[in-house]
Amino acid sequence: MVRPHQFSPNPETAADNHFQRPAEGSDAQRVAQDAYRELSVAAAALQAQGVRVHLFEDRGERHTPDSVFPNNWFSTHPGGHVALYPMYSPSRRRERRSDVIEMLKTEYRVQDVIDYTGLEPDGLFLEGTGAMVLDHLARVAYTAQSNRAHAIALERFCTHFNYEPMVFGTADAQGQAVYHTNVLMCVATDFALVGLSLFSDPARAAQVRARLEESGRELIELSADQIAQFAGNALELSGRDGRVLALSQRAHDSLTPEQRGRIERSARLLPLSVPTLELAGGSVRCMLAGIHLAPR
User: Fold this and answer.
1) Element (H, E) at 268
2) Record's Pfam families (predicted)?
């Protein structure tokens, strides 16, 4: 996790991130303070559940307004593999930090770092586990079509990491594509949260449904309104007493009691209050760069 000291919604990404909201009428310093507090409280809540958290600081020297969402610029994989991703927005490319990678090498067994950032000059982007929702068990990379998930970059990742790409188009009520797959769906051990109604092709939605069910997941469908409340932007983590599903309070509150019950048969719900951070167009899952490496 990265704790921001100078948080503000990023105007560079606002054009095609329709989940993003300006901090209208709010004092910039107050917004930054609220974001810092929300991240701090969220990290402490995860640690209280026995989740190991590596917390890095962003003091604002490099002008990286979206640094709170590190899952987009790197990912980690069993076997000691780390991937670095090509980012669509120039300001987001500055989020990449050598100290994060060095920490991973020190604390975990890292065999190699596969660097895709050289694709940026050619306009080929793939924003990590925002652009892809990875089914680590069935080896499927679910990917919504967008300018942040180029087919060539996706093919290279899937070839290197042995995933099958499953690509689909999306459209909200205004006909706008969903900018990142991880606001649309979450694949956990026993269940999957997914907003199939936002798929632009019903036949493709049916194929994704079938693929998830074939993998043994219980499918929990989310409405378009629940997706707008970030209910799909959740991440299953390993806690001290078993699995937890980290999501925002706003997302949690949008779920029905029946949906919550189905989730809690497999994982404890862990709602985190991050309303200021959600102004940037992402939520709890975006704030977490998962570690799938063996500790040293």
Assistant:
1) strand 268-272
2) DDAH_eukar
